[in-house]
Amino acid sequence: MTAAHMGLASRPNELVDDDRGDETPLNLLIIEDEALVAMLVEDALTLHGHRVIGIADTVSAAMALVDEERPDLALCDVKLADGDSGLTAAQLLADRGIPCIFLSGNCPERGGHPLVIGCIAKPFRAGSLGAAVRAAHVVAQGGRPSDPPAALRFYGERI
């Protein structure tokens, strides 16, 4: 998958962004078993000024990274290496107080935990990933994003 095949769009919305103007870089964890996709996501996130604390391809690798350094948010594929499930990873992260969004070609219908914020369907556009991460972080902090990306499907009554 190339960066040109990744597709996120944004739409105007009149909700108040409680975190507007806060461009503090976030520490992010990528949980993805396809190396090329993981690298594209990492590049897009770092171009938006964020810091990727690590890339994991299994649940155990993700939890090991979280034990080393706590991310502000995780981006997680649903299907992982060794038959692992991103649903399990997201639940374990949420149980530790770490918000998560799915980044998958197979978006689940629901998150199963309030800190599982939503899902971005693959393919997506790397250039808009930063807006999706910001919106998810705002929601995880109890805020309401003013301009949530259309491709970030929020779970529950988020916005």
UniProtKB/TrEMBL annotation:
PROSITE patterns: RESPONSE_REGULATORY. Residues 27-137 form the Response regulatory domain. The modification 4-aspartylphosphate is found at D77. SMART domains: REC (SM00448). The keyword Manganese does not apply. One of its GO terms (biological process) is phosphorelay signal transduction system. GO terms for molecular function: DNA binding. Keywords: DNA-binding, Phosphoprotein. Transmembrane segments: none annotated. The keyword Cell wall biogenesis/degradation does not apply. Gene3D superfamilies: 3.40.50.2300. It comes from the Bacteria. PANTHER family: RESPONSE REGULATORY DOMAIN-CONTAINING PROTEIN, STRESS RESPONSE REGULATOR PROTEIN 1. This is DNA-binding response OmpR family regulator. It comes from Sphingomonas yabuuchiae.
